[in-house]
Amino acid sequence: MFSHIMIGADDIGASKAFYDAALGALGVPAGIVDEWGRVIYAHGGSRFLLTKPIDGEPATHANGGTLGFAAESTDAADAWHAAGLAAGGTACEDPPGIREATGGRRLYLAYLRDPAGNKLCALHRVA
After folding, report:
1. Which CATH superfamily is domain 5-53+65-126 in?
2. What is the pTM of this model?
3. Of the candidates 6, 4, 10, 5, the residue with the CA atom closest to the CA atom of residue 117
4. pLDDT score at 64
5. Three-state SS for 90?
6. Euclidean distance between CA atoms 107 and 95, whole angstroms
7. Which of 22, 35, 37, 123 could join 84 via S-S bond, C-beta 3.0 to 4.6 A?
8. How many whole angstroms separate alpha carbon 56 and alpha carbon 8?
9. What's residue 116's pLDDT?
């Protein structure tokens, strides 16, 4: 459904360090900086990008928005959370753990905010 997701960041260096660590814990290679200064992550046919806002205004996070990253295990979600905290992220929501979802589904969720304030989640579907 999605070709890519791009979010704004005022401090590209701090955001790249955060995402290199957090996404690296999920097996995503380090981001590549293109000729426009955007950081591009490619993994599993998906693209995730960081950019300074084109309009020159400060980057802002989406109030109520969350970007979710797939984790292959609860350990991977925990590693993502720990790496993100160590790289300048901040914990938000409840601590990582299992949440009951509609339809009897069980999800392991870990939440962080990146250095620019974007709300993120690592999600593993528990069998």
Report:
1. 2,3-Dihydroxybiphenyl 1,2-Dioxygenase, domain 1 (3.10.180.10)
2. 0.91
3. 10
4. 87
5. strand
6. 13
7. 22
8. 11
9. 94
Residue type at 43?
A: H
Q: Residue 43 corresponds to which tokens in the numbers above?
A: 């993994």
* Cα 11 from Cα 15, distance rounded (Å): 6
How far is residue 58's CA from residue 47's CA, in Å, rounded to a whole number? 23
Domain chopping of the chain, boundaries:
5-53+65-126
Report the distance separating Cα 120 and Cα 113, nearest Å: 6
Give the position of tokens 């690592």. 122
Count of residues in the chain: 127
Going residue by residue through the chain, which has 127 residues, state the pLDDT in tens, using 9 for 90 and above.
678 999 999 999 999 999 999 999 999 999 999 999 999 999 999 999 999 999 999 999 888 899 999 999 999 999 999 999 999 999 999 999 999 988 889 999 999 999 999 999 999 999 7
